[in-house]
Design a protein that fits this description.
Two copies of one chain form a homodimer.
Chain A (H helix, E strand, L loop, with lengths): L1 E5 L8 H14 L3 E3 L13 H16 L3 E5 L10 H12 L3 E6 L5 H8 L4 E3 L5 E3 L5 E2 L8 H9 L4 E3 L13 H11 L4
Parallel strand pairs in A: 1-2, 1-3, 3-4, 4-8
Antiparallel strand pairs in A: 5-6, 6-7
């Protein structure tokens, strides 16, 4: 199967190295990995039109894949990288199978509560809310916003949580990607 | 046209009120608004299966809509609500027209730099990076991660930035939604 490799590791200084390692892992399990860099865009320049072309090229790569495997480890905050989340929604709507993994072992609810630093309170209607902003704290026993967990599950994939000894921000670690590959390939069921 | 009303205002204490106000605005412009609450889920309980059912119900609502209008104002951090971003990717892949608005007038790049509190430096290859985490700071002159700006533009919609006098966190304000409605309806071109 063709697998689109999705996640914020494109922002790493050694992004190419990490993505090539994942591509090789795909081969080990009998699949073909495509990375967000597999486009015909020769030069990355800081313009809107370049960003636009990258976005459309990445959509085109997903279109030819059967599966998307996304790193949803919280990125610069308490939630997954928004580019990765877009790709999960896109792939789900295109009927692709989507697997996701995170190196943060806290639930979505726990991460939101950490964001509020304990300043939450029950609203008397079944939800906790931030004391100051009065926003609902989702408590569906999920790993991310419900759209992501629901879409991934319904696509035939799953969310895998993997404890990284180096901590959740070690985006270059590829063990989570391999766990998803194992599930996809029936090595783990 | 049928419009799916997407954004983090579902988390507000007065979510129903805000969403009904947006639905009425849709009618003013000759459209039909659908909200994420327009499902047949009678009771919201804190279980995975309830979250799953909500997610699939919201996908089904988008499926019957022609247009999605999303509030991408940064939510609990420097980026849009991940549920909203998922919906943008999903709608884009389904061929819907997607409009987005934000009440934060800073670019994506400016918000990321604020996240680093000035601790960024050029990497000598055209990008700035966080000094500590060495992650690329996207600089494509866009409002969000490039997947979102590119997908919205290619769908036939646009990203609208609206200065809210009360500040960007006033998620109940509906002026940004109306600006998108005006663009959709040809009142602004």
């Amino acid at each position: 199967m063709k697998i689109y490799i999705s996640g914020p590791e494109v922002f790493l200084e050694n992004a190419v190295e990490v993505l090539e390692a994942k591509r090789k892992l795909c081969e080990v399990y009998g699949h073909e990995g495509l990375t967000p860099f597999d486009t015909n865009i020769e030069e990355i320049v800081p313009t809107w039109s370049c960003g636009y072309r990258i976005g459309l090229a990445n959509e085109a790569l997903m279109n030819v894949c059967d599966v998307v495997i996304s790193n949803i480890t919280p990125f610069r905050g308490i939630s997954a990288d928004p580019g990765t989340v877009y790709e999960i929604g896109y792939a789900r709507a295109k009927g692709k199978r989507v697997f996701a993994y995170s190196y943060d072992t806290r639930s979505h609810e726990e991460r939101i509560k950490a964001y509020y630093g304990g300043k939450t309170e029950p609203d008397g209607k079944g939800f906790e809310r931030g004391v100051e902003d009065r926003l609902t704290i989702e408590n569906f026993k999920m790993w991310e916003n419900l759209m992501i967990d629901a879409g991934v599950a319904e696509s035939g994939g799953s969310v895998q949580i993997v404890l990284n000894p180096k901590g959740p921000s070690d985006f270059g670690w590829i063990a989570g990607f391999e766990i998803c590959l194992k599930h996809l390939s029936g090595v783990i069921v």
